[in-house]
Amino acid sequence: MPKVSVVIPCYNEQSTIRLLLEALRGQTFPLSDMEVIISDGMSIDNTRAEIAAFQEKYKDLKVRVVDNERRLIPVALNRAIESASGEIIVRLDAHSKPYPDYVENCVKALEAERGDNVGGVWEIQAGAKTWVAESIAVAAAHPLAVGDALYRHTKQAAEVDTVPFGAFRRSLVDRIGKFDESLLANEDYEFNARIRKAGGRIWLDPSIRSVYFARATLTELARQYWRYGFWKQRMLRRYPNTLRWRQALPPLFVLSLLGLALASIFIPFIKYILFGEIVVYILICLLAGIRACLRLNKPFVSLGLPLAIPVMHLAWGSGLLWSLIVFPFDKNV
Question: Which residues pair with 39 in a beta bridge?
Fold first, then answer.
């Protein structure tokens, strides 16, 4: 039986860290062959107290905490991997809750040599018990919002560009290098790009399932997707061939709005084209909301989805465009 190290970047996750640890303790994989390493960004809430309480109550699961003073996700992952003793690394998130057979299925896929990095499907749930949070959770798995990101909705195993979290042999890190600490987001995608560039495979297996708790408010959602867009541009400069159509549409949409608005100052007729584009976009979002409402029997989604999807598109697109503007002046790149 291979030894497994579960590595978890964490910062101020007092509401979900206990759920994650309890889910790991309930794994079908032998606890004697598994350790959990939480790389904490010096949390200022009760996260560490929750971890300590779990450690005190349950001695059968080895849980260790390492400090991540820089509070960056790739740094957190690297510090955890450096402290790991397992030959297999399973990367999870403090916002997640794996199914009981998650680790076992990851190990099976790796031993069957399905891929160099294997991962599964997110079952996205609300980060709070509000209609906005539940709408955000629906949007985060909706094709209109995330395109063909298979890990959000597929039922078929397949080779893919990237997987959420991922499990891999420690020897892979020795071969291709650690997570890129210069990226504040998209570190998983960049890591997977290096795997593919080195001739490796990324495998998505829907039997590997986890619950992911989405952001609870539109403000948190906007910050998350702005960060994704901003750092996506940095990653694409290194791997331009990894750009996918779903990633190009949000910045093109934002650019069209800005371009038409600017052009309408000099050519008044263009304001009608701008108005038409906005109306069509709103109607598409409303239609998606109504369809989701009928499918899920949740009336609030008819309003919540048309709010969440534009936030995701506009924040992601604006973040990427802003990154293009400030890139020449960034001395750290």
Answer: 9, 66
What is residue 248's predicted lDDT score, i.e. its pLDDT?
81
Number of domains in the chain: 2
At 184-232, the pLDDT tens digits run 888 898 999 999 999 999 999 999 999 999 999 999 999 999 998 998 8
- For 221-237, write each residue's pLDDT tens digit: 999 999 989 988 877 77
User: What is the C-alpha separation between 313 and 308, in angstroms, rounded?
Assistant: 9
Single-letter amino acid code for the residue at 64: R
Give the separation between CA 165 and CA 77, rounded to whole angstroms. Answer: 11
Residue 115's CB is within 10 A of a number of other CB atoms, namely 24
Report yes or no: 135 and 215 within 8 Å, Cβ to Cβ: no
Is 224 among the domain residues? no
Output the average pLDDT for the chain: 91
Let me know how many helices (H) and strands (E) the chain has, helices first.
Answer: 12, 9
Residue with tokens 């002046």: 329
DSSP H or E run through 75: helix 73-83
One domain for residues 178 and 292: no
Helix or strand run (H / E) with residue 125: strand 117-125
The count of other CB atoms within 10 Å of the CB of residue 156 is 8
Q: Are 20 and 92 within 8 A, CB to CB?
A: yes
Q: How many CB atoms lie within 10 A of CB 190?
A: 24
Q: Rg of the chain's alpha carbons, rounded to an integer?
A: 21
Task: With residue 158 as reference, give the H or E element that holds it.
Answer: strand 158-159
226 domain residue, yes or no? no
Contact 235, 186 (CB under 8 A): yes
Domain span at 323: 238-329
Copy the structure tokens of residue 83.
């402290």
Q: Which helix (H) or strand (E) holds 62?
A: strand 62-67
Listed residue (145, 33, 168, 22) closest to 91, CA to CA? 168
Determine the residue type at 307: L
* Average of per-residue pLDDT across 123-142: 92
Helix/strand/coil for 299: coil
Are residues 91 and 205 located together in one domain of the fold?
yes
Please tell me whether residues 186 and 242 are part of one structural domain.
no
